Amino acid sequence: MEALRHQGISGRASTCQLHHYSSNMAALRFVRSVLRSFQESSGLEPRLFGENLRVTGAEPGRVDFELDIKKEHTNRLNIIHGGTIASMVDLGGSLAVASRGLYATGVSTEFECEVTYLNPGGKVGDVLKAVVTCDKFGKTLAYTSIQFTNSKGEIAARGNTFALAWKEPKNIVEELSPRP
Which residues belong to any copy of the Thioesterase domain (predicted)? Predict the structure, then answer.
């Protein structure tokens, strides 16, 4: 109950409030487990991001995460490399889909992955924050969008992905679906 009070739910919480809190906690746990799977099984994510990338919040359809910028994330100008941000767009899309209960979007199934760079993302020692949403979630396709904010509070980049949504035994789509 203390955790519920922390979320602003006290006394006789409505069934809707309890489901919302429960869905958010389930989404956060599930998204973090998917990120762990990337870190344990992938070749790119553990090498590029390691422990420097973390999920800071999640609810069905939305994930907040951030990256502590290290030297290995930068270009020769000592600012975050566009390729690092592009990789975060791709990973972020997978995490947004995970927030809707899908464990895997498959390998090389992105139909589209776009990035628009607007301001420098940061330098070594800065934190790049990202908010990614699953804007459309159908039976076989998912569309996600992401926005990055640098340490100055400026929008550093925006991106989106359009990917296949795979059926997988580890999916928990029903658990994270809205209830009437």
Answer: 78-155
